[in-house]
Amino acid sequence: MNFHEYQAKQLFADYGIAVPAGRVARSPEEAVDAAKAIGGEAWMVKAQIHAGGRGKAGGVKYSKSFDEVREYAKGMLGTKMETYQSAGVALPVDSVLVTQATDIAQELYLSVMVDRSTQSITFIASADGGVEIEKTAVDNPDAIKTLVVNYVQGLQPYQTRDMGFALGLNAKQVGQLSKIMLGLYKLFNEKDLALVELNPLAILTDGQKNTMEISGKLNRTAERYLEIQKFHGLELSEPERRCIAHICNIGFMSTLEIRELPFEVGLSKFECEGLDKAA
């Protein structure tokens, strides 16, 4: 199950990780109302789809007036968007996120995932974040820093500081990065996530760090799946609905069971609390 950006940002805020002020909108007028509520003189209008690469596909727009907010929201909502990360599929845009526009001094990259090769939670970071991170990984692999977390000891503060200094940050920024990484590690474990990517993790002109763009994915094998499903009415695909129906019946589902799940598993027993919107 994938998160929309606005859903992931709410989780980040719950774990003390800084995110820019923002509101989700499902109509052009709601987008304008969101911009007015946020305040300021400039806003970002961002299409909400389950894929990265929206900026290059025209799904992220900088707006300097309410009219521009309305125009960009109108141009995105109700359309379909294909990015280089959407596997050739054009995804529907049913909502946009209107966020406070900020002055960015530097864009970093930070992600955390389950690395099957090391069977560990692994952080990947780079001082060269932004839309060209894939190109950076190919052309300048030394710019990509990796931290493998010992599953017994967990993430240690000194490791986050080492990562910060390896990225060329100053002492204050290293402290901020440490807080973000420790919060992210706690979130990752408590919510049974499979991948969280921050691109960019922005250093603002005032020296603060801000998680500007976030994507996330849940494991399908955790019982917390049901808890997260309540969160903002996450959308489920038909195969995911059938998986959840099976989980409701037996209480647990392994990866192998998911692969072998018979298609005829019905939704008649889809009665878990909080899943009524998806049924």
What can you tell me about this protein's structure?
It is a single chain. Helix 2 packs across helix 3 (66-76) and helix 5 crosses helix 6. The strands form three sheets. Strands 7, 8, 9, 10, 11 and 12 form a six-stranded antiparallel beta sheet that branches. This protein has a four-stranded antiparallel beta sheet with strand order 1-6-2-3, covered by helices on one side. A two-stranded antiparallel sheet has the order 4-5. It contains nine helices and twelve strands. Helices cover 33% and strands 24% of the residues. With 279 residues, the chain is α+β, with helices and mostly antiparallel strands. The radius of gyration is 20 Å and the shape is globular.
In short:
With 279 residues, the chain is α+β, with helices and mostly antiparallel strands. The protein has helices spanning 5-14, 28-38, 66-76, 133-139, 157-166, 171-190, 224-229, 238-250, 255-259; strands spanning 22-25, 43-47, 60-63, 80-81, 91-92, 96-100, 104-115, 120-126, 144-148, 193-204, 209-211, 214-218.
